[in-house]
Fold each of these.
Amino acid sequence: MSPEKREKLKIMIEAIKEAIVREEESALFYLNKSKAEHFEELNSLFKSLANLELEHKKDLERLLIEYESQLNSHEKE
């Protein structure tokens, strides 16, 4: 793997790590909002949004594992 490709992978990995943190923070925000509202419909909406954020976080974590694996396998070469 070229040094440029390795550097791109490292940058992508860092960007994904940051995105994972933001997704988690967003999910926590929505979960907290769902507990604070007095309307059941709004609570349900916030819980749904939190679940979407957590699903997106899982997708990002899978992508992170894939990129880290690529980087590790090429660094061993």
Note: Residues 39 and 53 are 21 Å apart (CA to CA).
Amino acid sequence: MLWRAVEAFWEFLTDLYDSLDAWWTDWKDRTNKVLYDWWTKTKNVVYDWHSK
């Protein structure tokens, strides 16, 4: 009985970790893309401004 409770709790923790890891990876990838796009646009504006 106790062993089943421990197994269920361990499975819960494993699922929670997997969910948080997937969320973190998705958030990090999206943030990196947004920052990269922002930096590219900003850099292009600065280069265009300096080239005039």
Note: The first helix runs from residue 2 to 51.
Amino acid sequence: MDIVTVGPGINNKYAGFFYATDRKIRNGLIRLGHNITHISDRDIASSALGLRFVGKKLANRKLLKVVEAIKPDFLILFQAHLIEADTLLALKKRLPNCKIANIDNDLIYTKTRFLRLLKFKSLVDVTFITSAGEHLKRLRKEGLRSAYLPNCTDSSIERGNPFIDVNLTYDFIYFAGDVLQSRRWELPLKVASIAPDVKCGFFGHGKTRIFGSRYFQLLKNSKLALNWNKMNDLYLYSSDRISQLFGTGRCVCLYRGSGFQRFISEKEALFFSDADDLASKIRTVLHKDQWQEIAQRGQDHYRTLFNEKRIAEYIIKFTFDENISNYEWCDV
């Protein structure tokens, strides 16, 4: 198929977010044999000398020109927040057979983010979000054809084999772009106080988020990594960091309340209930050198279930009403 994708471009985090989900899904689509044309609404808008209103209009106009030239079978929006409903309406009139999917990786916990999805309600064929539970139910109640989309990994981007290298700087690592007073830091800091013998690396406090090669260098120099989000009891929700942790082969620490036991077993991740439980399990797997086996099994399993080709294929099949019964999350 000819597919046009719209989303972040090279200016996103000054190219430091080269491991973003949209990049991996585009790789998957290409590896499935599709012809992909990508445009960045944000990069186009930024060319308007900082005039946001002008830049937004320019981005929407460019999208229509690209679509008119290519006449795609499928349009995929990735966090394309500058694209207007009127633009999609015009596109639908010109290409009534072109399917449209809207993919949003953000946690849909504010009214603004929820309304952002609703504005395309009658214009997109499907809306994908990376959480299940109440947020997905709410979208469906509003009449959106919605589906859960796992965070994908791409072995050409997320590389690493910590289970063959024991000379790593950190036993336990955590990243969070948030102020130190945030509740997100309470759990990792408590783990560090309970287990002072564990070499911890905590990064991102003070909202100084780390991107690019430095992020991967730090991550690949750790044995265990904590997947801990702004909301941790929302069914099957995680930021895309979960794919980076599993993809690079860390021994991933997952909160039991997240529900990921549906896909990942105790042999493939370190599940915990609270800080005391996590600290105890970290010490155990480090002392017995079990973290390496868990890391390897976790990486292999996550890459099998949630690789970029499989997720891209699921997006196509769900959008085009094809059989999706062989995907483990099809009934979420």
Note: Residues 186 and 233 are 16 Å apart (CA to CA).
Amino acid sequence: MPGGPVFRRYPASYDDGPASVARVGLIALASDHTAESELRSLVERPGVALYTTRIANDPVVTPQSLRAMEAGLTDAAARLLPGVEFDVIAYGCTSASTVIGEDVVADRVRAAKPGVAIATPIGAARAALAALGARSVAVLTPYTDDVNVRIHGHLVDHGITVTAFGSFHDANDNSVARIDAGSIAAAARALAAAAGTEAVFISCTSIRFAAQVPALEATLGLPVITSNTGLAWSILRQAGVDEPEPDKGRLFALPYPDPAP
């Protein structure tokens, strides 16, 4: 072309982008099959965008493999849209949040994203129980007992009565994500029959059950929280998204407790 190519420049105007209401980050596990998709379906809406990074982990869940993730939290958080501020960052592992400790998780994430609000599944579960006015809970997990004892102890240490505790005793994230809804519902129904139960908590972000929560609540006549529904609710409320959505479960009709437990 004589004289070389012509590159035309045009003016551009800018809007507030896909996160005009809230920008949410998720640190998902490398072995996650479930949390990213369930949280996206529960959290995203016009103006609320969820951005995900992954943290290296061993898919076999033990206290040791959970604790090993602590070292990677800051780098994982730093990979979430470098140079961009977030309203909330969530760490998508219930058992690791418990074993590592919520304060440590928050410190590691804020080393990369100073001042950001932090959501963890175990903290969200406590806040959800407080919002629901439930002080006694039946708990279902997929974990082996070396992890179960940490979850049980955490709840009791925070003043929550555990009326019944059951597990599928499957330590592998890759198979936990394939536990079917019928098995989960049957185990939850059995546990919920324990005297004094005011709510059911289904722990583990690998568990696929968010869509079935309203139906199980109707069957039991009790509120049901999963790690992912609790985490999604916590994310939304901490991000200032407060509209009631009872079709997603009883929890989604409620505000965040103040102060959070």
Note: The radius of gyration is 20 Å.
